[in-house]
Design a protein that fits this description.
The protein is built from nine helices and 20 strands. It is of the alpha/beta class. The strands form four sheets. The chain has an eight-stranded parallel sheet. Strands 1, 2, 3, 4, 5, 19 and 20 form a seven-stranded mixed sheet that branches. It has a three-stranded antiparallel sheet with strand order 16-17-18, with no helix packed on it.
């Protein structure tokens, strides 16, 4: 990309949409963000129509490009998935391994360690197998199990390799002392696929859990006299992930949760994407064929099996159907997940590579700022 100054209509730099700003690109990297008056008049300048923004950060990606991570827990599998999602503006993601045999989890761990050796960036979201049978959704019942030393040893190995680990578990399956041990290792513990009551959820938060996985889906619901995980999550100061595809959660319920949170900035958009993103309209999971029908991915039992969604489509829906300001939608898709990962640089423009930046036009379609492509995993 040619060095010089980019002058977009607006810039989203993690906190708010900024007017009257310019971005200096040198050597393919942003070296300065400043006011228009500070742009040297003798240097190349290019006006860009639209909002300049960092790429999206997705904490829950099961697959993409026809590849399911559970079926190909390998470095090539990771790269295929990352490439598929970059086409839709996601530059950092947490590949997600769902409930499976212990050896599949071990292979996934080896893959992300190899990725870290290759490019210095890696993470893994372990969703299950330590979840509630009653709230397992499409997760295979045969692979559910109590928390054990096998999982702990794999997690310890990942953390020793400085891999970011997020783990979705049910607090009625994994006791508070085990949650505290995971947190002490630096694991981001997220509550989900759970039938827990509010007391069990509160104990998990007290032990250090600080996230909730896909709010409303696969968890104990909110009732007048029983908050369940839904109510406890909304009332908490935890980061709360939510799928916004018009299928998993009604738009009105997304809006309600966003309005009701006691701490601003803790709602996190996730895709929960499956191989159909950038791939064919079907894939196999646990030996069953999953089909995309009317925007829904369903297994033979009729249960939802992940989402045919991207972070971009989620942002578009948050604005067009949920009614959020673009600034808030971008915060959910970029800033909040970056903060949960303790990687705030992912939410900023300054210092980023130009090919990690995108331009959103007035119809919320994206185009890359740079034609050069890299594949990052958070």
């Amino acid at each position: 990309m040619t060095d010089g100054w980019i002058i977009p209509t607006q810039i989203f730099d993690g906190g708010q949409l900024l007017d009257g700003k310019a971005v200096c690109i040198a050597g393919g990297q942003v070296t300065a963000v400043c006011g228009l008056a500070d742009v040297p008049p003798d240097q190349p300048q290019r006006a860009v129509q639209g909002v300049l923004t960092p790429g999206f950060v997705d904490l829950q990606v099961n697959g993409g490009g026809g590849m399911l991570f559970n079926q190909s827990p390998s470095l090539p599998g990771l790269m295929t998935i990352a490439a598929a999602h970059r086409r839709f503006g996601t530059v950092a993601l947490m590949p997600t391994i769902i409930t499976d045999a212990p050896e599949v989890l071990a292979q996934a761990a080896q893959a992300v360690v190899a990725l870290r050796t290759l490019c210095g960036a890696a993470g893994l979201h372990i969703e299950g197998p330590h979840i509630a049978h009653a709230r397992r959704g499409t997760h295979a019942a045969a692979h559910l199990r109590p928390f054990d030393d096998v999982t702990m040893q794999i997690v310890q190995g990942l953390r020793a390799a400085d891999v970011t680990v997020m783990m979705t578990l049910a607090p009625e399956v994994v006791p508070p002392d085990r949650i505290a041990a995971l947190v002490a290792l630096g694991v981001i513990v997220s509550l989900g696929h759970s039938d827990a009551d509010a007391g069990q959820v509160g104990a998990a938060f007290a032990a250090g859990a600080r996230s909730v996985t896909h709010l409303y889906n696969a968890m104990s619901q909110m009732e007048g006299r029983a908050p369940g995980l839904v109510g406890a999550a909304i009332n908490s100061d935890a980061y709360v992930g939510i799928i916004c595809d018009g299928v998993h959660v009604a738009d009105e319920m997304v809006a309600l949760a966003c309005r009701a949170r006691p701490v601003c900035g803790r709602m996190v958009l996730v895709s929960d994407a499956m191989p159909t993103v950038g791939g064919p309209d079907h894939f196999d999971l646990y030996g069953q064929r999953i089909h995309l029908r009317d925007g829904r991915l369903v297994n033979p039992e009729g249960n939802l099996a992940g989402a045919h969604a991207t972070m971009l489509s989620g942002v578009q829906r948050l604005v067009a159907h949920v009614g959020l300001p673009l600034e808030e939608a971008l915060h959910m898709a970029i800033t909040a997940p970056a903060a949960l990962l303790a990687k705030p640089h992912l939410g900023r423009v300054d210092g980023r590579f130009a090919n990690d930046l995108f331009v959103l036009d007035t119809s919320l379609q994206i185009r890359p700022l740079s034609a050069n492509i890299r594949h990052d995993i958070a």
